[in-house]
Amino acid sequence: MFAALGDPARQRLLELLGTAGEATATTLAGPLGMSRQAVAKHLAVLQAAGLVESSRVGKQVLFSVRPEPLDRAAAWLADAAKLWDIRLAAIKRAAER
């Protein structure tokens, strides 16, 4: 999942989908200044990582964000940050002795 989030274009896609709720690759291509095909490839990576889901409505494929994996990642990062804060505080105390 973190590899999928490492690309700025995919980060922007998630932001746009978060705001729009759902959108097609064609709709997302405009604000990103990318071709529909490039957006579709990025969406495929996000979908493979479980961050985005798609649904077909007629001829259109609509994409939307799956918030659960992002919530779990945010919680994990918050826990990791707390541990690092504790470790860094211990290093600081040791250095000040």
Short description:
By secondary structure, this protein is of the alpha+beta class.
Explain this structure:
- Helix 3 packs across helix 4.
- The chain folds into two domains: 1-65, Orthogonal Bundle (Arc Repressor Mutant, subunit A); 67-97.
- It has five helices and two strands; from the N terminus they run H-H-H-H-E-E-H.
- It has a two-stranded antiparallel sheet.
- By secondary structure, the chain is an alpha+beta fold.
- It is elongated, with a radius of gyration of 18 Å.
- Helices cover 70% and strands 12% of the residues.
Fill in the keyword field for this structure:
alpha+beta; 2 strands; 5 helices; Arc Repressor Mutant, subunit A
Largest sheet: 2 strands, antiparallel
Count of distinct structural domains: 2
Question: Total number of helical segments?
Answer: 5
Q: What's the pLDDT, averaged over the residues? A: 91
Q: By CATH's scheme, which homologous superfamily of the largest domain applies?
A: Winged helix-like DNA-binding domain superfamily/Winged helix DNA-binding domain
Order of strands in the sheet with most strands: 1-2
How many β-strands, per DSSP? 2
